[in-house]
Design goal:
Layout (H helix, E strand, L loop, with lengths): L2 E5 L1 E4 L1 H6 L3 E9 L5 E9 L9 E3 L6 E3 L2 E3 L4 E8 L11 E9 L9 E7 L9 E4 L8 E4 L1 E5 L23 E3 L4 E3 L10
Parallel strand pairs: 1-12, 2-13
Antiparallel strand pairs: 1-3, 3-9, 4-8, 4-10, 4-11, 5-9, 6-8, 7-8, 10-13, 14-15
Length: 193
């Protein structure tokens, strides 16, 4: 199967953003992983967001050694993970691996989207990907871009919806051919008699 690495897609209101002092945690996650997944390296560009090396390990993975690297000039974070030679199993835990906290510009408005774009090659040209735990092969992967989106302001309106009664109508007869020959589809009944 394919192993997916990605950044979370976070949506919050402007009020929630202000209450969080414009700091938004975004999870870096893996799914579809198993014991065979070994060394892996991907990164992400964070565009108009700010990032000051504020991250946490969301879950400890036995034997995994991470060396997160940050290029402020390229607004890029590289997340290479290796496994110790004694590791008996690879990245068998799925879910969040790290939580990166970004600062959203104070000029943010409802509807704004700040993309976090995954990359399989580092800003310095190093190829990433996933190796098998024993290091003898590569594993197929997919990358999912994340974002921080400021939700549109919700307007308060009251709507009354009345459900229409269910009606059943028979299919109309169909006309085919040049001569007006009318053929009706036979009725079909299913279920117990």
């Amino acid at each position: 199967g394919t192993v997916t690495f990605g950044m979370e897609q976070v949506e919050l209101t402007l009020d929630e953003l202000k209450a969080a002092n414009y700091e938004v945690p975004v999870n870096y996650y893996v799914s579809g992983s198993d014991d065979t997944v070994g060394a892996n390296a991907f990164g992400f560009y964070y565009g108009d967001l700010s990032y000051d090396d504020n991250y946490d390990t969301a879950q400890a993975v036995t034997g995994m050694i991470s060396a997160v690297a940050h290029s402020t000039s390229d607004k890029f974070v590289w997340v290479p993970n290796t496994f110790s030679k004694t590791a008996k199993k690879g990245l068998s835990k799925n879910g969040n691996l790290f939580t990166f906290t970004f600062s959203v510009p104070k000029s943010a408005q409802p509807g704004d989207v700040y993309p976090i774009t995954m990359a399989a090659t580092s800003n310095g040209g190093v190829a990433g990907g996933i190796d098998t735990l024993d290091g003898t092969g590569k594993i197929d992967y997919a990358l999912v871009d994340g974002y921080i989106k400021i939700k549109e302001e919700e307007t308060t309106t009251t709507t009354t919806t009345t459900a229409a009664p269910a009606t059943t109508t028979a299919a109309p007869a169909t006309t085919t051919g040049k001569k007006a020959t009318t053929t009706a589809a036979p009725a079909t009944t299913t279920g117990k008699k």
